[in-house]
Amino acid sequence: MMQTKTNLEAKEMLFALSQAFGPPGREKAIRELVRGFVSGLCDQIEEDASGNLVAVKKGYSTEKVMFSSHMDEVSLLVSRVHPEGYLRIHGIGVDPKILPSQRVHIHTRSGEVLRGVVGMLAPHLQTAESRKKVATFDDLFVDVSMADFSSVSVGDFITFDSEPFEMENVWVGKTFDDRACCVASILALQKLQHVEHPATVYAVFSSREEIGAMGAKTAAHWIQPDVAIALDATHGNDFSPGYEKIEVGKGPAIGFGPVLSPDIFAQLQSVASQNNIPYQFEACPGRTGTDADQIQLEGIRCGLISVPLRYMHTPFEMIQEKDLKEAARLLSSWVSQYRKER
Amino acid sequence: MDLQALCEINGASGNEEKVREWIQNRVQGMADHLTQDPVGNLVATKRGKNPAGKSLLVMAHMDEVGLMVTGYEEDGRLSVMPVGGVDPRVLPGKKVVVGKDALPGVIGYKAIHLQREDFSTPPKWENIRVEMGFGKKEDCKKKVKIGDYVHFYSPFEELPRRFLGKAFDDRGGCALLIHALEKMSPVDYDVHFAFVVQEEIGLRGSGAVLKQFRPTCALIVEGTTAGDNPELEKARWSTILDQGPAISYLQGGYALDTRLLDVILGTAREHAIPFQMKGRTVGGTDASRLARTYSGIPGGGINIPSRYIHSPASVISKKDYENTGKLLLALVQNKKYLDVMEG
């Protein structure tokens, strides 16, 4: 039997992951952290050319199930360096409206991390006209005049300078989308240490979800699982026009829609009921905007478990620990019961 | 470092208590006389050798811009309104601290995926909310009171060329006043170093401070707008970082007496201190209030150029900060600054 390493707490893992640098295609630091967290919880750790990390935990049957939670984070990209000491930027999944006066980190190719501030005109110098303007990437800039910036080049990634912290009932921080689900996946592996499960588990920590989920696709391709479950963040508390509200603190959401397998949906629902796991429904009438979209394209039946999260893609995404833990319990309970229909 | 300590204290207008206490402790023993007036202004006086009724008032304001809790939402979040000039567009996605116990909160913003028409409308006060994780109004009410101050969470950072943080407007001025008081050689006239309250909500402290004395003239040390942003045409820049202290000559509600202006410029030249003329007349300082008090107290202004002021992440040049300090010290000790007003 494998060594039983100390089970790390969710908060410890999530806060460490939150602080690490990992834009799409640059997930190395996340992979290293995850590798540390899952070693001792699985039989094998694999990495592929896409940058996915896969923890394999053997079951006693020939069946294969895959989990997929993505490691990458929304970020900014340097599109131009001006000699006066400022950068022009492009956003990857970022709302320009949250950027003015934001402190950021510029990660240079040589591995340096520089300080920057997204500039904003002081109210004194605004005009009636300019006050009505919304920040766009055409006029936003990052001030890097604080220090020597000669090492910055076009294509460097920029991430939010924001430390995770705990408030009343909730945790907030950057990249909880989707590193909270990476943690849920790890917690599920922890639980599976004490449970017999027929299927071999391939816990995929995927790359490049924020730019189209190609990591999950290549992982599904080489693993060829019988079924898969994508884990991602979904919008909590804020009203999505035309949809039932999903709430932070009311348990994970189970997705239903054309991309997702109705069988897995039914299984997840019944596992949740049997184990008294609170859950919510999430209707996904089209693409889900998660790894599931790409896993389906590999011809694999896929389910979706979502952790409700508010203020998505901002420096302070908000979740409740309870939702994360219940998502992990749902995942591990489902795996331990999963048998291929014959 | 004084500047760091001062900037990291939270003290929006009307809530300057902790700033005042800090300054009071710091200047203990430097001044001959220390007073606090009923509105909260703190004045440290250095007595002159032969004042003959003459005195110089040097002034910086202790308050900073911030927010105030004005309402509870059903979902446990807080509505807030600005204390002083805050552009709501700098708030989304920032961390704040709420109330006397500095409880942490964040100003969340609706996720980009959920926005419709609001994608292209700027954040407004009506949709700025402080999230503290309460979830329910009743729980929120137990910990937060209407009227509690909300301050930007913004640690001070010293970087090779710049200082980065909040409240340089006008803790930068406060720090330089302390340094001038500490370093100045004795002069004939009394010098009152006034740390005033409530500048940001309409130059209020500076009006009240003059109830204590009637200076010959005044010198205001401020953090002022830079505006040397790439999206703004150069003609509209107010000041430029690294070009030295900015000298005001005309501002909201006050035109500087040419005699004072000449002494300021002459002093800078004499001491080979680089300076720049403030390129815009926007914004007011306490000089405007002084000009309206008694029969008008003439006041000059020297300013530390600051980028992104009134926001959680402001930037000043270390060189400008030092040079503003040098100019202040030279002016405090320059008798001409008072004498020109006699003639």
Care to describe what's here?
The complex is a heterodimer of chains A (342) and B (343). Chain A has 342 residues and is an alpha+beta fold. Chain A has two domains: 10-73 and 174-337, Zn peptidases (Aminopeptidase), CATH 3.40.630; 75-160, Elongation Factor Tu (Ef-tu), domain 3. Chain A has helices spanning 10-19, 28-38, 128-131, 176-192, 214-223, 262-274, 292-297, 321-337, and strands spanning 44-47, 53-57, 64-70, 75-82, 86-92, 103-107, 113-118, 141-143, 157-160, 165-166, 171-173, 200-206, 227-235, 253-256, 280-283, 301-309, 317-319. In chain B, helix 1 runs antiparallel to helix 4 (168-183). Chain B starts with a helix and ends with a helix. In chain B, 55% of the residues are buried.
Report strand % of chain B: 25-35%
Spatial gap, N to C terminus of chain A: 30 Å
* Rg measurement of chain B, Å: 21 Å
Give me the secondary-structure category of chain A: alpha+beta
What is the average per-residue confidence, as pLDDT of chain B, rounded to a whole number? 94
Number of helices of chain A: 8
Number of domains of chain A: 2
**Which protein chains are joined by the largest interface, and how many residues does each one contribute?**
A-B, 61 and 62 residues
Biggest sheet overview of chain A: 8 strands, mixed
Q: How large, in whole angstroms, is the Cα Rg of chain A?
A: 21 Å
**Biggest sheet features of chain B:** 11 strands, mixed
- Residues in helix, % of chain A: 25-40%
Shape of chain A: globular
Poorly predicted tracts of residues of chain A: none
What is the number of independent domains of chain B?
2
Which oligomeric form is depicted? heterodimer
Structural class of chain B: alpha+beta
